[in-house]
Amino acid sequence: MLALHNTRLIETYGRIDARMRAMAFVVKHWAKRRQMNEPFNHTLSSYAWVLLVINFLQQRSPPILPCLQEYRRSDYNQNYKKEDDAEEELPWAEGYDCYFYPHADHLADYGKENKESLGELLFSFFEHYANHFDFNASVVSVRMGKYLTRREKGWPNEDDHLFCIEDPFNLSHDLSRVLTNFTFYLTKKELQRAYRRLNQGGTLEAICTPFRPRIGSKT
Known about the structure:
This protein is mainly α. Helix content is about 40%, strand content about 5%. The strands form 2 sheets. Strands 1-2 form a two-stranded antiparallel ribbon.
């Protein structure tokens, strides 16, 4: 059931702004071509990459996406407040609070003040994670629409918390825990490579060149 809520959350974000859908598709395609979306090989899942896209768009100025898990939460809680002995009506699954605002059609104009194109957003996404994101201090949180600190989350800078990405519902789950020190290093290098190629005038096709690791390869 929790996986169904995860799917619905992403689908709802995708219906708010078409740039989110297109950007998520491109980033997932890039990660697949560069072999950076295989959790069984200790790289991030496609789901994790999509959360990075959503969180990035939540923090643009002006923002392109809202934070659905906080949007009108107080109204929802008030409308559905129950007596202590009443049947629970809140959206819980497997013991996790799965509330989010589901009416994407009511938010269709949310990001209209932001005029950035898909190309500009993709460039900024790779630039941000290549040069500016603080891996040692920050936790990606779609649930809050911002970065949390490791201290807030209680996730120390250890081998199992290398690139902190909070699951929106299972708040104790860090989606980066599949990474090893080596694949964490590769992930950062791939983000840097994508930014460098784009900054040099490279195309999307150039950054998505299939990765075939070879000894001594500089791709």
